[in-house]
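Incident review: delayed structure delivery

Summary: a single-chain prediction request sat in the queue longer than the usual turnaround. Root cause was a stuck worker, restarted by the on-call engineer. No data loss occurred. The affected request and its eventual output are reproduced below so the record is complete for anyone auditing the incident later.

Affected input:
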Amino acid sequence: MQRTNIYLDERQLAGLRGVAQRRGRPVAELVRDAVDAWLEAQGVAVVPEDEWQRRFDELLTRRRERDRTSRPKPEAVDRDVQAAVREVRRARAARRR
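Output delivered after worker restart:
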């Protein structure tokens, strides 16, 4: 997780603190839950880091299989790697929104 600062008015903060106390949960956790709900409502799919690792491993496996049967051109390898990098960057940017 990364630390971030947000500005809330007194009413918002008092309300959050009250809910947090009643539920026995930290205010930060309630804020994270609210942000997750909002992101979901916006159609933002957050992909966990381990999912990216799994996808990258699958890409490497596919590339190795292809390498065994044919010699790929360096341009094709570069294109596949760049596509994977763009996909990861798009997902990370979506998480920051």
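Verification: Helices lie at 10-23, 27-41, 49-69, 74-96.
Action items: add queue-age alerting; document worker restart procedure.
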